[in-house]
Amino acid sequence: MISRRSLFLAATAAFALVGCSREGDLVLSEGVGVTAVRTACPAVGVPDYTGDITTFRSAGSRLASDVDLTAAITDVESTCAEDGARIYSVANFSVNARRSDVRGARTVQLPYFSTVLRGGTSVVSKRVGTVTLSFADGQERASATAQAAAYIDRASATLPEDIRERITRKRKPGDPDAAIDPLSDPAVQAAVSRATFELLVGFQLTEAQLGYNATR
What we know:
By secondary structure, the protein is an alpha+beta fold. 16% of the residues lie in helices and 42% in strands. The chain has four helices and ten strands. It has helices at residues 5-12, 161-168, 186-194, 207-215, and strands at residues 26-28, 36-38, 43-45, 52-56, 67-81, 86-99, 106-118, 122-135, 141-153, 197-203. Strands 3-10-7-8 form a four-stranded mixed beta sheet, covered by helices on one side. Strands 4-5-6-9 form a four-stranded antiparallel beta sheet. Strand 5 and strand 6 (86-99) form a beta hairpin. The chain starts with a helix and ends with a helix.
C-alpha cells in the first residue's frame, strides 16, 4: 500500500508544500523557512490499517495457508473543484487483488468507505461503496478502479481573515515577534485545524480484519 493517513497528515495537515500558488491561495513564506500554500481543498489519503484486506477460507482462521484473497488500495489520486460555495473533491483509486485458488471464474465484491474528517478528529460524513473484481478461470490477479467524492462547505474550509493576516503579516528584524512562527500560536493552530479537512478512503473492515492488519 502506498498511502497511509499518517504520511498525509505529516505532509498536509495544515499546508501542502508546492512550488507555485494561485490567486486567492494563502502563501506562507516567513518564519518557517519554506514557502507553503494552503488551499481549501481537502487532503486525500488512506487511514492506517485500512488500505489492505485479507479473507480466509475458514471462519476465524488466521493461518497463511488458509488465505483466500488479499487486496490493496493503490494509486490514490484526487481532483478538486474550488469554485462556488461548495468544494467538490474526488478521490480515484485502484484495487489490486490476488486469490489463492485460481480454479474457475470468480467475481468478488469488496466494501470500501469514504469519510470526510475535520480537524483530524471530527467525522463530517461517511459513505460505503463496493468495488467489483473479476477473475477469469486460471487467473491469479485482478484489478479494478473505484471512486469516492464529497462536498465540503467552502466557508468552513476558509481561514478567518484575522488568522490569515496573523500568518502572512510581514515581520521586520527587531519586531517583538519577528522570530516567532505564527503557527506556534495555539489560537492560530486551532483555527487552522478547524478549517482543515481530509477525504479518506479505505476498506470497510470487520473488527477482526482490522485487528489482523494492525498486528500482522
